# Entry
Amino acid sequence: MNPLDWSLVAGPLPVILLVGALLALAWLAAGRNAPGRGSLRSAALAGRAGGAVSGRWLAIWVPLIVMAAGGVTAVLTWLINNVWRPFPDVLPFTIVLWSWVALAGLALALARLPLLRTWPRRAAAIAAGVLVLAAAANQVNGYYQAYPSLRMALAPWLDPIPEFTGTRTVTEVVARPGQTLENIWHPRSGMPQTGAVYQATIPGVRSRFAARPGYLYLPPAYLARPRPQLPVLVLLAGQPGDPRAWLDSGQIQAMMDRFAKRHNGLAPVVVMPDDLGSEFANPLCLNSRLGDVQTYLTVDVPNWIASHLQVRPPDRGWAIGGFSQGGTCAIQLSTQAPQLYRFFVDISGQAGPTLGSRQLTISKAFGGDAAAFARVDPIVVLARTRFPRSAGIFVGGADDRVYTPQQQIMYRAARHAGMNVTFMELPAGHDWRVWRGGLEHNVAWLASRLGITGRAR
# Structure
């Protein structure tokens, strides 16, 4: 197997990285200095001197460096959680711990360099520091299950995605009311076996939202001539994040291709727009002082889809989904624009849009206007409005003690509002095992609701 395809989250490689990093830390902390060149007497003297240096190093400097790294980690964590606040929740302990380990390893490597007398040992110290950093990064990767392999992690550089410029208009096969596409569609010769992915620039014409490039998946049937009139699934990533996350960590192409293979090339057209503007931004998926993201996702993105793709019109029911902050956005837009997004999949979302607290959210996004926030807060909207034509899935991780309880709150509120909803719990935490699995488990449900197949349940 190609080393790029070795698993980073299971099997021997993560264990080898972790054990190697522990050994590297032990060597950086307790390894002796190399004696200088010269006579046996000078070598012996240098060896005793090196031993003394190593003694002071181990007894004084190593604890100081490790504690200093811990102090820097604590200060940075406090600044991130309380001052910068790019995330609505505090950093998980696991992330803080491995950040400390990474800083300690790098600091020990740099501090050891002047004490090592030969270039090979200095190179070994640098390599040890890099190894600790790599192992710590992979522990963080394992926490979120973001990159199953090195190929996935390097995909933005190894696998550039072509820009989408619009597809040629061809004859469409359109299902009449009461028909499913699966019943009337028969694959044509020349239809590819797999779908295609593209990068898509979707401008904020009405919203003026400065969105980053989005992405697009077109199933095999869309690439045929004639093509069926397929429905649309809009997918949103979490925060911090990038729309490409659904391609790399979410493996959306392989997921949809598997479904399409079982259904004569049929699957939803998947559009993955940007709803953040930058990696660490959080404009809450609303129209507020932070930007008109709701207008972007309910006007600009649908207008772009209608003008660039041959798909089912939105008034026949599109779907929206997302994970974490993207899941929160999915239920928000299902309550704000139910005529557009009748169906939704909310995976590990929150009980409402937040910058960390309700008071802070109202202050920063709405200038203190609590009534303005209440008009778009989904839990409030669900309490006062009925949505009998809407349907959705809420997905939470069994080990996620922060987001899954919020999912249960939203599930009960949606049921109270008349939505046809289901709650699903998967065996993992707030990570890609749930996010990826939460969508894959429900592709059939989406296809049935969107008229591709008969009702799944």
About this structure: Residues 36-53 have pLDDT under 50 and may be disordered. The longest helix spans residues 40-84. Residues 67 and 104 are 8 Å apart (CA to CA). The chain has 17 helices and twelve strands.
